[in-house]
Design brief:
330 residues, two-stranded antiparallel ribbon, 7-stranded parallel beta sheet
Length: 330
Amino acid sequence: MADTFNYRIDHHGSLVRPTGLDRTDAASVDAAVAEAVALQRALRTTVVTDGGHPYDDALGIVLDHVDGVRRTGETAADGSPVRVADTLPKAAGPLAVDRAERLAGLTVIAPKVTLPAPSYLAATVSSPLPAREVGEAFAEIVRAEIARLVDAGVRLIQLDNPLLLAATGPDDTPVGALSFADALAVDAPATRLDTRPEGVRIGYCPGATPPAAVDRAKAGRLFAEMTADRWVLPLLTASAAELDLIRALPEDRDVCFGVVDAARADPEDIDTALDRLDAAGELKDLEDAAVAPSSGFADVAARPLQTAEGQRRKLVLVETLARYIWGNEF
């Protein structure tokens, strides 16, 4: 796509929370977000996010602003709060627009907002109601928020479902409480915009780890049924499964390669990472590509994948790889 270069150096959105951050104190959150923006500017990312600092976990950007969903007081295995939908969720107001507008006021770099995909919300929130119905209710909420974000000037919006990629294997792997088909049906409406200003990208990240083998028909169905025009796909080993996902990606879609492992302590070897990008370039025009870490650094605030310094090194590596591949065109 012609304007992919605007978002070459990407990241998923969540960053390691600063020591002493009090999410109950608006001033503390605002200071942390300003610090995160300064970090991203210094590292020359081509998008900026709020680091996820206002939320306990990646689901909070939606679930903290809807009626019908409550916290149980328990904690899941990954450290995130356990939530239950007793009734179909309804938006209590805008989700992220106010924060996105404040973010845009801190820098001229394009603000990015990452939202949990409706299918992921339905897959991870317990409910006595049918998961498909819960997912469709979340899809209405997320679709409306995407429209508001675009109207507010946000040009890159990413939806995440870390469970979906596993379902592209040959086995009948469910997506939490949803089937693969139901997950696609739930998310498809949220990735469509009837009208879209120039430069807007709706991205989708189906997960950081592919199955051992990819069913090309399932992968093709994934890309065909969801019209997201930017796909965030793993490229940590250039395995057969990772390359099969790239082969299945339609030519008219952008791709952002998760080429740096967000969970690995030591930085990757640059030459090895470039070799993986070269392998991907045999299958996909790198002019329609970008690079990023494989996942967020702290999708659950209490359990970051890196230290702050480790995160910085990973983001520096992403920027370095982008310069090797595309020079200084951005």
